[in-house]
Amino acid sequence: MSIQPASGRLDTARIEQTHHAGYWHDEVVTDLLAKHAKDQPDAIAIVDGEHRLSWSRFYQLSQRFAIHLRELGVEPGDFIALQMPNWMEYLVCYHGIRLAGGVVVQVGAGPSLGVETPEAAEQTFQKVRQVRRQIQAERRPAPVRPPETKQLQSTQETDSAQDQDKLIDLEA
Fold first, then answer.
1. pLDDT tens, per residue, the chain with 172 residues
2. What are the φ/ψ torsions at residue 83 (nearest 5 degrees)?
3. Measured between alpha carbons, how far apart are the two ends of the chain, in Å?
4. C-alpha distances in Å from residue 22, one per residue of 18, 25, 26, 115, 117
5. Cα–Cα distance between 61 and 71 in angstroms, integer?
6. For residues 107 and 82, what is the distance between their CA atoms, to the nearest angstrom?
7. How far is CA 126 from CA 37, 77, 91, in A?
8. What is the distance, to the nearest Å, from the Cα of residue 67 to the centroid of all Cα atoms in its chain?
9. Residue 74 half-sphere exposure, CB side, CA atoms within 13 Å?
């Protein structure tokens, strides 16, 4: 079986048909995240055990991670490997990479990656926790515009008790 390039799989008529039917939009996933953060900021976007994130907080944390990546020198089009458990932090990092213009390279966990021992896994988690603490400490939400997305909406951060209740315990 040979794999055809996308241009050979979808003809113009099929593309127009899916657009007209509403199945295919001119949006990328970060556009949808920004839209939900604007349209329903307090609605719950992510449930991870006892943790909850609203759309606005999810978007805000993703933007912070994007800013952090850009400050580290990540440029649009750079490939960023992402290996994390299926937690809400994964989603924040995934969308942060996309907001920074990076290309997410999902890396599966397994013995070949050097995390076959509890000690190695703990070292990996310590590094992730360190990055999360840095992101939380910055507390500077600002949009980052990658080349493939529309202009992002600015988010406002408040220090209200309600927002603090929604924060993830990054030390645990």
1. 455 555 566 677 877 888 889 887 778 889 999 999 999 999 999 999 899 999 999 999 999 999 999 999 999 988 999 988 888 999 999 999 999 999 998 887 544 444 556 676 677 667 767 766 776 666 444 445 454 433 333 333 333 334 444 444 333 3
2. -130, 110
3. 48
4. 6, 7, 10, 43, 48
5. 15
6. 6
7. 30, 28, 18
8. 12
9. 25
Closest residue by Cα to residue 85 from 64, 60, 106: 106
Please name the residues in contact with 39: beta carbons below 8 A apart, sequence gap of 6 or more: 55
Structure tokens at 82: 């992402």
Residues comprising the chain, all counted? 172
Distance CA 156, CA 25 (A): 28
DSSP states of 135-152: HHHH--------TTSPPP
Sequence-ordered list of residues with C-beta below 8 angstroms from that of 84, at least 6 positions apart, any chain: 90, 93, 128
